[in-house]
Amino acid sequence: MGNNLDSEKVESCCTRESRTSAEAPLSDADASELEDLFKILANDTRLKLLHNLALAREMCVCDLADSLGMKPQAVSNQLQRLSDRGIVSTRRVGNNVYYRVVDTCILDLLHKAVCLLRDSEDRRDGVVSLASLNR
C-alpha cells in the first residue's frame, strides 16, 4: 500500500470561493491597483505590524516598536505607508499615536495568507514524514 498525496483529500482552512459568472475579469487599471497594494504588503516589517495590530486591535507606536525591536521612527515610517493606503487609521492620546487596522479586507487577506503558509508547512512536513517512512 503506497502513500500517494495526490490521491488524498487535502484539508485546508483556506476555503475556495467560486467566482460568479457576473464577475468581470480584472481591467488593466484594477490589475495595476492590485499590484500597488501587494507592493505595500510585500514588506516583512509591514506584515508584522499588521499582524500585531490584528491580534491587539490597537497599539501605540512605542509598543509596536518594542514588539518588533525597532525604533519608533522606523515603525512610524512603515505605518505611514499603510495609513496613506487607507489600511490603518490613527488616534492620538497625548503624545501617543495609536494605530488600528480599518480595512477589514486586509485582515481577511492576512488571515488567508497566514493560513496558506501554515497549510503549506503542514503539507511539506507531511511529504517529509512520508518520504522518511518509505526509506
Verbal overview:
This protein is mostly helical and 135 residues long. The chain has a domain at 42-133: Orthogonal Bundle (Arc Repressor Mutant, subunit A), CATH 1.10.10. It is 58% helix and 10% strand. The protein has helices spanning 28-41, 44-56, 61-68, 72-84, 104-133; strands at residues 59-60, 88-93, 96-101. The chain has a three-stranded antiparallel β-sheet with strand order 1-3-2. It is globular.
Topology, please?
Elements: H1 28-41, H2 44-56, E1 59-60, H3 61-68, H4 72-84, E2 88-93, E3 96-101, H5 104-133
Antiparallel strand pairs: 1-3, 2-3
Helix pairs in contact: 3-4
CATH topology of the domain at 42-133: Arc Repressor Mutant, subunit A
Distance between the termini: 14 Å
Radius of gyration: 20 Å
Largest sheet strand order = 1-3-2
User: What is the total tally of β strands?
Assistant: 3
Name given to the CATH architecture of the domain at 42-133? Orthogonal Bundle
Q: Which term fits the overall shape?
A: globular
Helix and strand composition category: mainly alpha
Q: For the report, how would you describe the main beta sheet?
A: 3 strands, antiparallel
Poorly predicted runs of 5 or more residues: 1-10, 129-135
Corresponding CATH superfamily of the domain at 42-133:
Winged helix-like DNA-binding domain superfamily/Winged helix DNA-binding domain
